[in-house]
Amino acid sequence: MLVTSEQMLKKAREENFAIPAPNFFDLDSARTYIAVAEKLQKPVILSFAQTHADILPLKEAALIGKFLAQNTNVAVDLHLDHGQTEDFIKEGIDLGFTSIMIDASYDPFEKNIERSKNMANYAHEHGVFVEAEIGHVASGERVDFIEESEQKYTTVEEAIKFAEATKVDSLAVSIGTTHGEYKGNPEINFELLSKIHQAVNLPLVLHGGSSSGDKNLKKCAMGGINKINIFTDFCLAGMSAISKKKPETYFDLKKATNESMAELLEHYYQVFETR
Ligand SMILES: [Zn+2]
């Protein structure tokens, strides 16, 4: 069933666990994620990033997401990830996305507040759940982004001010992860996470979950992070399945990559202790 992430994230916050938010970019990936959620009977935040609109147009993403969500018995939030422009996000809302992220984290703090607040007003009028980001989760080995960008950690003071001023429903925080693949293990600032968790009464979101290490991710899920975005790891799992299994036909290749992505998502459900 198609829902907003409000109830699932509320429960996740109350019970200290996280919900996976895997990025889909075609029918296969979306179908794979939903099949895993259905098999485990757990909620999923099915995410589509604006940067992938050149691979899969927004309208098709909305059709795929809504169709799959409406034809399963588990709760599916159809999420517009990293919305960078207001027009694109509004189009997503019109097309039936049930939650959106406005990513104005590239902007100066006051501008980020203004844009996130305006978008939250618009989205709330349409019954849509809103995530915004403060601080900035950088992108290293760019897979889902075009440019390199600099890391900016979230501060507790900013988090409090931002939450109050914008009235967004969830907060993406920058605590040490980066987008894409790591060259080493990330240094996650758990103390900072704990302080933000205590100071702000909102579900927190971790971007750049890929390759962060299971131990780190579990600790985040137990410590205030309620949604974890995963993208790059699915691409890596697919490529690794291809090189290991050496499929001889295109259909064997599709089967191998789909299966590897399903296994990975199932694994992350366990790591995040999703209920
Ligand atoms: Zn992200």
CATH topology: TIM Barrel
Shape: globular
Provide the CATH superfamily: Aldolase class I
Order of helices and strands: EHEHEHEHEHEHEHEHEHH
User: Any guess at the CATH architecture?
Assistant: Alpha-Beta Barrel
- Overall structural class, as computed from helix and strand content, comes to alpha/beta
What is the rounded distance between the termini? 16 Å
Poorly predicted runs:
141-146
Tally of alpha and pi helices: 10
Name the helicity range. Answer: 40-55%
Average of per-residue pLDDT values: 94
Notes on the protein architecture:
By secondary structure, the protein is α/β, with parallel strands linked by helices. The protein has a single domain, classed as Aldolase class I (TIM Barrel, Alpha-Beta Barrel), CATH 3.20.20.70. The chain is 47% helix and 16% strand. The chain is built from 10 helices and 9 strands. Strands 1, 2, 3, 4, 5, 6, 7, 8 and 9 form a 9-stranded parallel beta sheet that branches. β8, α8 and β9 form a beta-alpha-beta unit. α4 packs parallel to α5, α5 packs parallel to α6 and α9 crosses α10. The radius of gyration is 17 Å and the shape is globular. About 2% of the residues have low confidence. Bound molecules: zinc ion. Zinc ion (ZN) binds next to loops.
Explain the layout of strands and helices:
Blueprint: E1 2-3, H1 6-15, E2 19-22, H2 27-40, E3 44-49, H3 58-70, E4 76-83, H4 86-94, E5 99-102, H5 109-125, E6 129-134, H6 156-166, E7 170-173, H7 190-199, E8 204-206, H8 214-222, E9 225-230, H9 232-245, H10 250-272
Parallel strand pairs: 1-4, 2-9, 3-4, 4-5, 5-6, 6-7, 7-8, 8-9
Helix pairs in contact: 2-3, 2-10, 4-5, 5-6, 9-10
Bound molecules: zinc ion.
